[in-house]
Amino acid sequence: MTSTTGVTAPQGFRAAGTTAGLKASGKPDLALVVNDGPRHDAAVVLTSNRVQAAPVKWTRQALSDGRCDAVVLNSGGANACTGAPGFVDTHATAEAVADALGIGAADVAVCSTGLIGERLPMDKLLAGVTAAAVALDGSGAQGGADAATAIMTTDTVSKQAVAHGPAGADGQPGWSVGGMAKGAGMLAPGLATMLVVLTTDAVAEPSVLDAALRAATRVTFDRVDSDGCMSTNDTVLLLASGASGVEPGEDELREAVTAVCADLARQLVADAEGASHDIAVEVVGAATEDDAVTVARAVTRSNLFKAAIFGNDPNWGRVLAAVGTTDAAFDPDALDVSFNGVQVCRAGGVGDSRDGVDLSPREVRILVDLHAGPASATVWTNDLTHDYVHENSAYSS
Amino acid sequence: MTSTTGVTAPQGFRAAGTTAGLKASGKPDLALVVNDGPRHDAAVVLTSNRVQAAPVKWTRQALSDGRCDAVVLNSGGANACTGAPGFVDTHATAEAVADALGIGAADVAVCSTGLIGERLPMDKLLAGVTAAAVALDGSGAQGGADAATAIMTTDTVSKQAVAHGPAGADGQPGWSVGGMAKGAGMLAPGLATMLVVLTTDAVAEPSVLDAALRAATRVTFDRVDSDGCMSTNDTVLLLASGASGVEPGEDELREAVTAVCADLARQLVADAEGASHDIAVEVVGAATEDDAVTVARAVTRSNLFKAAIFGNDPNWGRVLAAVGTTDAAFDPDALDVSFNGVQVCRAGGVGDSRDGVDLSPREVRILVDLHAGPASATVWTNDLTHDYVHENSAYSS
């Protein structure tokens, strides 16, 4: 039995989510994802922040041989900036998972999310690992959903996705990619605190998985920039069981992994802390893709622009001011900007009437044409709202 | 007669502020500052934004010969992204000032601030120039204050400052530097929309003024970063009349100019849009000054950090997460962070109790020790508040 979505959609995976008691709210806070094989190939992309949480350091080491048998994830505490004792806690967590499942601790990835600078209550966490391991058996589709729920922090909904490879000769999907994600704040390039677990029953070597994962994150999670902040704990894992017996082409695999990442990334934007608009900043006519990303990111990082969108104000001057801070190739007098299809700025000056722009829908599309070449890119962000300020000023209190 | 502060404090300057009717509010919106000599040396620092307003393009040209006889400044419209017609408007403004004062238009600097992307009502503006020129005579100390008021946008108070050179043999100050500034939002490195006029009665060649001005702005206005945004209109002018007859040493002049810039910069932070805290992020123990500035700026640009300060939350994890995004030299396990004198993070981990931190005063001091060298730098910012979001979402409506 497989579920229709999430980490247990592909064959060869079990999952569970339980309540270990790490969160004051008493909500689920511990998840397990287990790869039952027959293969255990894996790849990971980790935060590029130089201040890295203990679980990030552990998981980098654990994944260095391209093998991963299980992932344990907790919300309710990031275990970041906790020094050597924090690393010992992560190690103990991996050992507990290994003991419960009869595998090696070095094949267990660990992910944590929550407040920085506090030790985890290890008695509760280790008891939770035992409970989660028990809950695995017979968990079926529900296990994937439970795991996706247990990793939520300020997320208001859990996030799961699935993509299927081409059908086999029998008309049945030959293999699939599933995934779950959490991360409602701190989304940023170089990834976010954002934890993502992707699974596939395709047959693929670790190097192939790594290439597919890096290609996918580069154009999905790396192009979501909710508030410009980068976490100490970002982790995106891809586990392959080989249970389908199908070895897809590298392009096919990359496309399926990218589709799941794009789906999850869009869900993250839609659930960003306190946001009232999801904003796609699409830059076209760039000399290079790097230029397009640089310009789009400059716009998505402008607090003035983001506050204007919150106020349903098509303030294109703030877009131009942000574009002008970059070193991308463009002529300031050639810039065009559209808000939801209305070209309010033409050739660097006043264009069509801003009165024609309707910013009431949640999704807003900004189009910037640099008129400098053939490249393009889209970066997603959110507006800057009263609720964002409120949630992030009250987060740790 | 000289005033005790502002642009008319040094000898040889007159100023005026009038209401041309550019602002819907009917508040003063046009200012003139005139250098009556005997010398007319000058220097300017302009925005590094590549999208530059018409007055910025004009003023760069006008100041290229190191001479400036008068400055006209308007609030109520930035004249940015207005194309060739906008440049014609700026030119016409300079011509009107030149006609009224009997000087050359090429010796008139023009500064504008307000909404981007709208033409100025030139009939009102030119009539305002005539009125301001009339108001100059006998304006004395009040003229400087009126000019400082007329350049305000969302500023709640006008900003003026003065510094005196060493006393002469007669015990009287031999020369002085005065100044005025506006700019309550969009403060950022590379300057802000922020218009600043500095005056001095010292004798100094344009090259000396330029060196003093660049040295001063580098460690003052360039280290104020209210919201990470950079304007299309930033201008800092320094005009020297030579009326004191004293030629100070280059160090003396630089120190006095820096003192006035530092005073004005601090006033800008104190009046930033919607802010409830002024935050000094001081980085010490850096390998280089560039490293110190890079780290301090990363912290001042973290929306999560700024929102935490709004909530009186000494969330040092967000400081570390911001530090970790930089390429400065440091060991993550050696970082120390203090909030208002309490060392809440020691050696990259938990330090003294955050309960001991009092963030209720408006001024907050964050100290980050990188333990990587002898260099240091301080960057000022503000917290991220409900009022910031409100003011900037409603700005153009």
Question: What does this protein structure show overall?
Answer:
2 copies of one chain form a homodimer. Chain A is of the alpha+beta class. Chain A folds into 2 domains: 13-270, L-amino peptidase D-ALA esterase/amidase (4-Layer Sandwich); 278-393, Roll (Ubiquitin-like (UB roll)). Helices cover 31% and strands 22% of the residues of chain A. Chain A is built from 10 helices and 15 strands. In chain A, helix 5 (206-219) crosses helix 6 (250-270). The longest helix of chain A is centred in the middle third of the chain and has 21 residues, at 250-270. The model of chain A is unreliable at 185-192 (pLDDT under 50). Chains A and B meet through helix 8, helix 9, strand 13 and helix 10 of A and helix 8, helix 9, strand 13 and helix 10 of B. Chains A, B: One of its GO terms (molecular function) is L-glutamate N-acetyltransferase activity.
Name the features.
homodimer; 397 residues; alpha+beta; L-amino peptidase D-ALA esterase/amidase; Ubiquitin-like (UB roll); 6-stranded mixed β-sheet; 10 helices
Describe the protein's topology.
2 copies of one chain form a homodimer.
Chain A (H helix, E strand, L loop, with lengths): L12 E6 L11 E6 L5 E6 L7 H9 L7 E5 L8 H19 L6 E5 L9 H15 L3 H11 L8 E6 L11 E7 L12 E6 L5 H14 L15 E6 L9 H21 L7 E9 L2 H12 L2 H8 L5 H8 L12 E4 L2 E5 L2 E2 L12 E7 L5 E8 L3 H8 L4
Parallel strand pairs in A: 4-5, 8-9, 10-14
Antiparallel strand pairs in A: 1-2, 2-4, 3-9, 6-7, 7-8, 10-15, 11-12, 11-14, 12-13
The major pleated sheet of chain A works out as: 6 strands, mixed
Oligomer: homodimer
Shape of chain A: globular
Instruction: Indicate the CATH architecture of the largest domain in chain A.
Output: 4-Layer Sandwich
Amino-to-carboxy terminus distance of chain A: 43 Å
Report the order of strands and helices of chain A. EEEHEHEHHEEEHEHEHHHEEEEEH
| Low-pLDDT residue spans of chain A | 185-192
Fraction of residues in helix of chain A? 25-40%
